[in-house]
Amino acid sequence: MIIISACLLGIKCRYDGESRFDKELLSLIPDAIFIPLCPEQLGGLPTPRSPATINNGSGPDVINGHTKVINSIGDDVTEHFLRGAEEVKMIAQLMKIDTAVMKEKSPSCGVNFIKQGDVLTSGMGVTSALLYSVGIKLISSEKVAEDYVRYYHNRKRH
After folding, report:
1. How many CA atoms lie within 13 A of 37 on its CB side?
2. To the nearest whole percent, how much of the chain has pLDDT over 90?
């Protein structure tokens, strides 16, 4: 079983009420059982919602209380992002899941990059950072072909 950002499977849970369905993803990992999750919804945010960004930092900075997540109308939504990350972590631990495919560029799910407003910057989203901190392997939605082979497929051979 693999946790996956729900928007990648066509679930309309993004801030704009849309999805980022990636049908190629299903062919790259044909034997996986996916657990689709949206940390922002699990944290109590509605869909659609105002887009949010991590101010001056990335996911680990939010988790450590050094910065906040602010939406486009100026609301502090940090607690929603932290609550959603904790829920995803709890589900992963409960189901003994050790791998997650996460939507790149998201303030929740970004693995290598997050958007800060219109600027793409290096860093992890809040949920990805929390999952990584407890040893869950992260696969970027933009590098599934490479990372799946490295993390998941090689594990099955051992």
Report:
1. 27
2. 78
* Residue owning tokens 């970004």: 110
Say what the pTM is: 0.92
DSSP tag of 74: S
Cα–Cα distance for residue pair 86/148, rounded to 1 Å: 24
Instruction: Compute the average pLDDT of residues 71-83.
Output: 98
Residue (of 149, 133, 132) closest to 32 by Cα position: 149
Q: State which amino acid sits at residue 60.
A: P
Confidence of residue 149 (pLDDT cuts 50, 70, 90): low
The amino acid at residue 23 is K
**Count of beta carbons in the 10 Å neighbourhood of residue 17:** 11
The residue count of the chain comes to: 158
Determine the straight-line distance between the first and last CA of the chain, rounded to whole angstroms. 17
